[in-house]
Design goal:
Shape of chain A: elongated
Structural class of chain B: mainly beta
Radius of gyration of chain A: 27 Å
Oligomer: heterodimer
Number of helices of chain B: 9
Largest sheet of chain B: 22 strands, antiparallel, barrel
Strand content of chain A: 35-45%
Distance between the termini of chain A: 69 Å
Largest sheet of chain A: 8 strands, mixed, barrel
Number of domains of chain A: 2
Radius of gyration of chain B: 30 Å
Strand content of chain B: over 45%
Strand order of the largest sheet of chain A: 2-3-7-6-5-8-10-22
Chain lengths: 377, 927
C-alpha cells in the first residue's frame, strides 16, 4: 500500500500550506536611500488638558535604530481657531511642542506650523468633538488569555468613531527576596541598602486601536479589544493596571487611521488589500506636492483606569522563572557576584558560604523601577 | 507488371469483406527509430521484425526520407505516418503482403458501376455503409481502420452519367471509442485544396467537386485518417477517428498539427484533457486552470490564485464558460484549486486574441471549457482518491445510445488537515464540493438536445470568527437543429448564479451576516450557415438579463445592534447581434470577419445619484437623486465590436496571421485585493460607472518543421482598455450605497511578444514558451480628486515582463511516463515601503509610488510520474497511479512581501504559499 506509506509524510507538508505563517520568512527589501525627509505631525488639539504635538521627519528604514530618529525642533507651532484666536505651543525638545487652548465647542480649529527652514504647513480646520465618557474598561478570559476591552456609548449618537491609547503599569517581584548585597570594593557580602524585590514596569500602546459604531443603530461600542495579555504573562504576576485614553474621531480621521493601521499592521494575508496612500489633513503651503504625514483632530479626551489582580488569575497562571542557584564558598565571592551574574540571596551552611542566584531573579531594578507610582494602591 | 497488379487488386477485393489479420495483436509490431532513413532501410527493418513482405518499385522512393520513432506499433499506423501528406498509398493483404502504389490507390472495394450492368443503388448514404463495414464480428481495430480507409464511400444519388458540379457533404467527426464529438478537427482534400474545421459539436460541412476524393481528417490526439469517396450529390458523412492513446503510442500534447498554420484563428490554445493530466498538479489535483497558466500570455498574481491575467488583462475580464455556463468564481479553497473536476472535462480552449464574434461581454479573453459528451457505447466511469479530494465520474448511454450522460461529483475532506493544526487553529474548517452533469439526447438525425448543470460550493473558516461561503449554480439547455447539410442552429437558454455569504459571529453586539448574489438569465440563438467553400457564415443573437443583489447585511441574534441594510438590487439587459464570415479568399488567403453589436440597458427600480458635472464624484457634489420605477430604462450603452482576423499561407508550412478586435464589458468586479477573493462585488455599468472597453491588434508568424512534428510560432500584440476601475484610498467596496464615489476610472495598455516551440508528438513531447509582455495602468480620471502616481503610467499587479515555461513529457514504456516542467517569471510588482516614521507609539512605514518595486523572481519545477496498470482490454477496471513532487527545488517563491511594525521596528516578510517541495500521490480507477 504505497498510499499508506506516503500519507503520514504528507501531513507535515499540508500543515505548512494551510498554516501560512509557517511559510513566512524574513525579507530584506532592496536598499532605499530616500534623500527627502517628509514632515510627520502627530497630536490632538486637546480641549480638556495639555495639547502635545510631536514633529519629526521620515527616515530611511533602520530596523529600530533609534539613533536615526529625526526630531523637528525649532519650529513655530500654533493652534488657530476661526475667531482668530492663536494659541502658541512651546518646544520642549525632541520635537515635542505643548500648550493649552481655550475650548469653545462651536469653533473650528487648525494647526499652523512654520519650520526652521521657513516652510509653512497648515492643517484643515476641524470641528471640536467632545468625547463621551468611557463606560467601562473591563476584562475577560478568552481562550485562557486575558482580554482587556473598552465600552462606551454616546446618547447623542454623534461621536461614532473612536480611537484609544493606553499606558500599562504593573508591579512585579523578584523570584528571591534578598537582604544581602555584594560589595566589590571589599569583596564581601553585606546587608542590602536598597530593596530590589518590588518593582514596577510601564509600557505604552503601540497598535492603532479603533472603533466605529457607524453601522449600528445606536452609538454603542461594546467590548472593543484594547490589549490581549497572553496566558502566564508576568504583567499579572502581582497587580496590573491600564489607563485608557479615548479620543473622538471624525469619519475622515477614522479612515486615515484605518489606512495607517492596514498599511502597517494588517497586510500580507491572502485577501488583504494593497497599501494605500491616504493623505492626512496637513498640507505644505510652500510646496503643495510635498508629502506631509499626520492627521490632526480636536476635541476632548476621556480616561479610565483598570486594575487586574493576580488573585483573579487561575492558580497555574504564574510560571516559575528559570533561575540558577549556587552555594558560593568564601573564596569564590568575586567570581560569582562580580563576574558570573549572581547576586547573594541568603546565608548558607557552612558559615561563610552564601546562597547565590542569577541577578535577573534577584534584582527587579534590572527590568523595572523600584519607585512606586503615585496612583498605585 | 501491370497485369499482375490488376490480378492482385481483384484478389484483394474478393476477400476484402471477410479477411482478418492472421497474426495476433502482439505479433508483427514494429519498433524502431529512423532518422532520415531511406525507404529501403525502413522496409528491411520492418521485414526483419515482422512477417510482412513489401512490394514496391524501389526507384520511386529515392527522394523519401523517413524520420520516425515508433515502439511496438502496428504497421498501418506506421505507414500512415510515413505516407502522411504524400501521394503514396498502401494496402495489406491477408498473407501480410504490403503493396505500395504511387498516385493512385488500390481501393478495397470497387465503386458501384465499375462493372457494366450492375444495378443502380439510389440514396445510399455513407452512414449505412459504415455500419455495414463495422458490423461483422467487430474486427480488430487496426483492420477495421484499414478497411475503412480503403473503402470507397458513395455519397448521394448515383446517376448514370459521370458526376459533375458541386456537392455538399456534412456530418460529425467522432471518437470511435466512445462517440465523443471531436471539435477542431481539420477535414480537407488536396486537389483542389479545400479545408474546413469541425465545430464544437464535431459537426462539419463542406462543398466539394463531384467525383472521387480522398478526404483527410486530422485532429489533435487522434490518429490521422482518410476516407475514399465518390460524390454524386449532397449527403451526410460521419467519420469516426481512433484515439492515439489507446494504442499506447505516445503522449499527446498537441494543438492540431498543421492546424496552427492553417486556421485563421490566432492567439487560441486548445488543451485536451489527457494533455492536462500529464502536467504535474499541486497535491495531485488535476487542474485545468493551472494548465492554462502554463500557456504563453497567461499569468496569475500568485500561487493561491486561479484568477487568470490574460495578456495583461484583469482577472474579471475573462469570460469563463463551462459548457456555455458562465462561472463567476472558478476556484476552490481560497483559490488553491480550480472548481472544475478534471475527469468530466474534454478540452479547454482559450481565446486570447481573435475572439469569435459569437462571444462577448468580457474584454480580455474567453476560456471555453467543454465537458465530455458521454460514452455512447457503454456505461463506464472513473474514480479517484487523492489526499484532498475524492471523486466519481459516470458516463454512458441511457437509451440505446440516443441519450448519453456524464456526471461527476467531487468532494473534499480537507477538514482533517485543519484538525492536525495546533490548538489555536481549532476553530478552522474548510470544505468544498462540485458536481457536473451533461446530458445529450439525440431526438433524430436533425435534432439534438443538450442539457448541462453545474454546482460548486465552498465554505471556510480559518482561525477567525468569520465564515465565508460561496456557490456557483448553473444550468442550461440547448437545442440543435440541422435545417439542412449547410445550415444549422442552436437555441440555448440558461441560468447562471453566483453568491457568497460572510457571517461574522465573534461578538454578539456586532454579529452580522453579509450576502451577495448575482443571477443571469440568458438566451442565445446561434446559426451556422455554410454558404460555399469560400464563405462560412455564423450569426445569431443573445440576451442576458442580470439581477444583482449587491449586498444585504443582517444582524445575527437578538443582542446584535447591527442595522439591517440592503443595497438596492441592480438589473440590466445586455443584448447582442452578430454576424461573421469565414471567407477563404484563395487557397492561401483567408479572412474571418465579424461584427457584433452589443446593446445594454440599465433598468429600474433604482435610485440614481446625479453628480455636478466637472466635479469629483463625492457626496457633497450630488445635485439630485432620482428614482426609476421597475423596468424603466435608466441608461443605455451600445457599442459595435469588430472582430477581424486574416491568414496568409506561405510555402513550406508557414503562415502569417493578423487580427484586430474590439470588445465591451458591462460588468465590473470590485476588489481591493490582488486576487479573486470571496468578497468581491460584481457591479453593473450604470450612469455613473461606464462599461469597460478593450481592443487588441496582433500579428503572428507560424511555421511547422519536420512534417508538422515541430511547431513554432511568434505572436506580437498590443492592447488597450478603458474604464477599468481602481479605488480611492480607503474605499469601501462592501455595503456601499454610492460606490461611484469610491472608484476611479483607469486606462490600461498591454503589449508583448510570445514565442512558442512545441513538439506535440513522439516519445518525448512538450513545449517551451517565452513571453515578454508589459501591462501598464494610468489613471486619467480628471475628477478623481486624488491621483495614483501623480497621473503617470504605472505597472499593473500582473505586469511580469519575462516568462519562460517548459513542459516536457517522456514516455519510457507503455505503462510508465515522466513529466517535468519549469516555470520562470519576473516577480510581480508591489508597492514597497521607502521610509519609516514614528506614529502612535510604533514605527510606521511610508510606501513608494504604486507598484514601483517587484517581489523576487518566480521559479518552480515540478515532477510527476504516471504508472498505469496493465492494458488488457477485457478487464473490468483499469487503474493508474500518479505520484510526483510539486515545487521540486522547494524554492520559497514570494507570493507577497509585506512589512509590519513589530517590536518597535519595521520587519519585512516574504509569504510563500508552497514554500517547500510538496509530494503527492493519487490513485485513479476507470471502469
Amino acid at each position: 500500500m504505497k498510499q499508506n506509506y506516503f500519507l503520514p509524510k504528507l501531513f507535515v507538508y499540508y500543515v505548512c500550506i494551510v498554516l501560512l505563517s509557517n511559510c513566512k520568512t524574513p525579507y530584506e527589501p532592496p536598499v532605499q536611500n530616500e534623500k527627502q525627509h517628509f514632515l510627520v505631525v502627530e497630536g490632538f488639539l486637546n480641549g480638556n488638558g495639555l495639547t502635545t504635538i510631536k514633529l519629526s521627519r521620515t527616515r530611511n528604514i533602520t530596523h529600530g535604530d533609534s539613533a536615526a530618529y529625526i526630531f523637528e525642533d525649532g519650529a513655530n507651532v500654533r493652534i488657530e481657531d476661526n475667531s482668530n484666536d492663536i494659541y502658541p505651543l512651546y518646544n520642549s525638545g525632541k520635537g515635542t511642542y505643548t500648550g493649552y487652548l481655550f475650548a469653545n465647542p462651536s469653533y473650528l480649529f487648525r494647526l499652523h506650523i512654520t519650520t526652521a527652514d521657513n516652510k509653512e504647513y497648515l492643517s484643515d480646520a476641524v470641528v471640536f468633538k467632545p468625547s463621551p465618557p468611557i463606560d467601562q474598561i473591563g476584562w475577560k478570559f478568552r481562550n485562557g488569555d486575558v482580554q482587556v476591552y473598552a465600552n462606551t456609548h454616546d446618547p447623542q449618537n454623534s461621536t461614532r468613531y473612536y480611537r484609544w491609547e493606553y499606558e500599562e503599569t504593573w508591579e512585579f517581584h523578584s523570584e528571591y527576596y534578598s537582604f544581602l548585597e555584594y560589595d566589590e570594593n571589599s569583596n564581601s557580602v553585606k546587608a542590602r541598602s536598597v530593596p530590589v524585590y518590588q518593582c514596577w514596569r510601564f509600557d505604552n500602546s503601540s497598535r492603532i486601536l479603533l472603533g466605529s459604531s457607524a453601522k449600528l443603530k445606536e452609538d454603542v461600542i461594546n467590548q472593543a479589544p484594547i490589549i490581549l495579555i497572553p496566558f502566564g504573562d508576568r504583567k499579572i504576576s502581582v497587580l496590573y493596571s491600564i489607563l485608557v485614553t479615548q479620543y473622538p474621531l471624525d469619519s475622515i480621521g477614522y479612515n486615515y487611521w484605518k489606512a495607517m493601521e492596514s498599511n502597517t499592521e494588517n497586510v500580507g494575508s491572502i485577501f488583504d488589500p494593497q497599501p494605500n496612500l491616504t493623505q492626512g489633513n496637513i498640507h505644505c503651503l510652500t510646496d503643495s506636492l510635498e508629502t506631509v504625514i499626520g492627521y490632526i483632530g480636536a476635541g476632548t479626551t476621556q480616561q479610565s483606569r483598570l486594575f487586574i489582580s493576580h488573585a483573579d488569575m487561575p492558580s497555574n497562571w504564574t510560571q516559575i522563572a528559570k533561575c540558577s542557584e549556587a552555594i558560593v564558598p568564601p573564596d569564590s565571592l568575586h567570581w560569582y557576584f562580580a563576574q558570573s551574574g549572581f547576586d547573594p540571596v541568603d546565608y548558607a551552611a557552612p558559615p561563610g558560604n552564601f546562597l547565590g542566584a542569577s541577578k535577573t531573579c534577584v534584582d527587579c531594578t534590572l527590568t523595572g523601577s523600584p519607585v512606586k507610582p503615585a496612583f498605585w494602591p | 507488371m501491370k497485369q499482375g497488379f490488376c490480378l492482385l487488386i481483384t484478389f484483394i477485393l474478393l476477400f476484402s469483406h471477410s479477411h482478418v489479420y492472421a497474426q495476433q495483436e502482439h505479433d508483427n509490431l514494429i519498433t524502431g527509430n529512423f532518422q532520415n532513413a531511406t525507404f529501403n532501410e525502413f522496409v528491411k527493418k520492418v521485414e526483419v521484425q515482422t512477417d510482412f513482405h513489401f512490394y514496391y518499385e524501389a526507384a520511386q522512393f529515392d527522394s523519401l526520407a523517413i524520420t520516425l520513432s515508433v515502439k511496438e506499433a502496428h504497421l498501418p499506423s506506421v505507414l500512415d505516418r510515413v505516407f502522411a501528406n504524400t501521394n503514396w498509398h498502401y494496402v495489406v493483404d491477408k498473407n501480410n503482403n504490403v503493396f505500395i502504389t504511387r498516385g493512385f490507390e488500390i481501393a478495397a472495394e470497387l465503386p458501384y458501376g465499375f462493372f457494366n450492368g450492375e444495378t443502380d443503388t439510389t440514396g445510399v448514404t455513407a452512414k449505412r455503409k459504415t455500419e455495414q463495414v463495422s458490423a461483422p464480428g467487430k474486427p480488430q481495430k487496426v483492420n477495421h481502420e484499414i478497411l475503412i480507409e480503403n473503402k470507397l464511400f458513395e455519397i448521394g444519388i448515383k446517376r448514370n452519367e459521370a458526376p459533375k458540379g458541386k456537392v455538399n457533404i456534412a456530418g460529425y467527426i467522432r471518437d470511435a471509442q466512445n462517440g465523443e464529438a471531436i471539435s477542431g478537427a481539420l477535414i480537407y482534400i488536396d486537389h483542389p485544396h479545400i479545408q474546413v474545421n469541425s465545430d464544437q459539436f464535431g459537426y462539419y460541412s463542406m462543398i466539394l467537386p463531384a467525383g472521387g476524393h480522398t478526404l483527410n481528417i486530422i485532429a489533435p490526439g487522434m490518429f490521422d485518417t482518410k476516407r475514399q469517396m465518390m460524390l454524386y450529390s449532397d449527403g451526410k458523412f460521419d467519420v469516426e477517428m481512433d484515439e492515439k492513446i489507446l494504442k499506447l503510442k505516445e503522449v499527446v500534447v498537441e494543438a492540431g498539427k498543421e492546424k496552427n498554420v492553417r486556421s485563421t484563428t490566432m492567439g487560441m490554445d486548445q488543451l485536451k484533457m489527457n494533455a492536462v493530466k500529464q502536467i504535474p498538479a499541486v497535491l495531485g489535483e488535476v487542474d485545468v486552470l493551472r494548465a492554462v497558466l502554463s500557456l504563453p500570455g497567461v499569468k496569475s498574481v500568485g500561487e493561491a490564485s486561479t484568477g487568470l491575467n490574460v495578456r495583461g488583462g484583469a482577472t474579471d475580464q475573462n469570460l469563463i464558460l463551462f459548457n456555455g455556463m458562465n462561472v463567476y468564481n472558478p476556484s476552490h479553497l481560497f483559490g488553491f484549486f480550480s472548481a472544475f473536476d478534471g475527469d468530466v472535462i474534454k478540452d479547454v480552449s482559450l481565446y486570447k486574441s481573435s475572439i469569435p464574434a459569437k462571444y462577448g461581454g468580457r474584454i480580455s479573453s474567453v476560456l471555453d471549457i467543454t465537458s465530455l459528451d458521454g460514452n455512447d457505447k457503454k456505461i463506464g466511469g472513473s474514480a479517484g482518491i487523492g489526499p484532498l479530494t475524492s471523486k466519481v465520474t459516470l458516463e454512458g448511454p441511457i437509451i440505446n445510445s440516443k441519450t448519453t450522460f456524464v456526471a461527476g461529483v467531487r468532494a473534499t475532506y480537507s477538514d482533517w488537515i485543519l484538525k492536525l493544526l495546533p490548538e489555536e487553529y481549532s476553530n478552522s474548517s474548510a470544505s468544498f464540493h462540485d458536481a457536473t452533469l451533461h446530458i445529450n439526447h439525440k431526438l433524430n438525425d436533425k435534432n439534438t438536445i443538450y442539457a448541462n448543470g453545474y454546482l460548486s460550493g465552498d465554505k471556510f473558516r480559518l482561525n477567525s470568527d468569520t465564515t465565508y461561503q460561496y456557490h456557483n449554480k448553473n444550468a442550461n439547455i440547448n437545442w440543435k437543429h440541422i435545417f439542412n447539410n449547410r445550415f444549422y442552429g442552436v437555441l440555448s437558454a440558461g441560468i447562471d448564479h453566483y453568491d457568497y455569504n460572510v457571517a461574522f459571529e465573534g461578538d454578539s453586539v456586532s454579529a452580522a451576516d453579509l450576502d451577495f448574489a448575482i443571477n443571469q438569465y440568458k438566451a442565445n440563438l446561434d446559426f451556422s450557415y455554410f454558404l460555399s467553400n469560400k464563405h462560412k457564415l455564423s450569426f445569431g443573437l443573445s440576451s442576458i438579463y442580470y439581477h444583482v443583489n449587491s449586498g444585504t447585511l443582517d444582524p445575527i441574534g437578538k443582542q446584535s445592534l447591527v442595522i439591517a441594510d440592503t443595497l438596492e438590487t441592480e438589473q440590466a439587459l445586455e443584448s447582442a447581434v452578430y454576424l461573421s464570415d469565414n471567407f477563404n479568399v484563395s487557397s492561401n488567403f483567408s479572412i474571418d470577419a465579424g461584427l457584433r453589436f452589443s446593446y445594454y440597458n440599465y433598468l429600474g427600480p433604482k435610485h440614481i445619484n446625479t453628480y455636478a458635472p466637472g466635479l469629483p464624484k463625492t457626496l457633497d457634489n450630488i445635485i439630485s437623486t432620482d428614482f426609476y420605477s421597475k423596468g424603466k430604462n435608466i441608461k443605455t450603452y451600445m457599442y459595435p465590436e469588430y472582430r477581424l482576423s486574416a491568414r496568409y499561407l506561405l510555402p513550406g508550412n508557414t503562415s502569417i496571421k493578423a487580427s484586430v478586435n474590439s470588445l465591451s464589458q458591462y460588468i465590473h468586479m470590485l476588489t481591493n485585493s490582488t486576487t479573486i477573493s470571496p468578497t468581491d462585488v460584481w457591479k453593473l455599468a450604470d450612469p455613473n460607472i461606464k462599461p469597460q472597453q478593450g481592443a487588441q491588434v496582433s500579428l503572428g508568424l507560424y511555421k511547422n518543421f519536420k512534417n508538422n512534428t515541430i511547431e513554432t510560432s511568434v505572436e506580437v500584440y498590443y492592447k488597450w482598455f478603458t474604464n477599468y476601475l481602481d479605488y480611492r484610498s480607503g474605499a469601501v467596496l462592501v455595503m456601499n450605497h454610492h460606490i461611484e464615489t469610491d472608484v476611479i476610472n483607469t486606462d490600461g495598455t498591454a503589449y508583448g511578444i510570445e514565442l512558442l516551440l512545441k513538439k506535440p508528438t513522439g516519445k518525448l513531447n512538450g513545449w517551451v514558451s517565452y513571453t515578454y509582455s508589459r501591462s501598464l495602468l494610468k489613471q486619467n480620471d480628471p475628477y478623481a480628486g486624488e491621483k495614483i502616481n501623480k497621473g503617470m503610467e504605472y505597472p499593473s499587479n500582473f505586469d511580469q515582463p519575462n516568462n519562460i515555461n517548459f513542459i516536457g513529457n517522456y514516455r519510457l514504456t507503455h505503462r510508465f511516463s515522466f513529466s517535468l516542467n519549469f516555470t520562470y517569471s519576473t516577480g510581480r510588482p508591489i508597492t514597497l515601503p521607502i521610509a519609516e516614521y514614528d506614529y502612535a507609539g510604533s514605527v510606521r512605514v511610508l510606501y513608494s509610488e504604486r507598484n514601483a518595486y517587484r517581489v523576487p523572481d518566480y521559479f518552480r519545477s515540478d515532477f510527476s510520474m504516471n504508472l498505469e496498470g496493465n492494458h488488457k482490454v477485457h478487464q473490468k477496471t483499469h487503474n493508474s497511479w500518479t505520484l510526483g513532487i510539486y515545487n521540486l527545488t522547494g524554492r520559497k517563491n514570494a507570493y507577497s512581501v509585506y512589512f509590519i511594525s513589530q517590536n518597535g521596528g519595521i520587519q519585512g516578510y516574504k509569504l510563500s504559499i508552497f514554500g517547500t517541495a510538496v509530494p503527492f500521490i493519487t490513485y485513479n480507477i476507470r471502469f
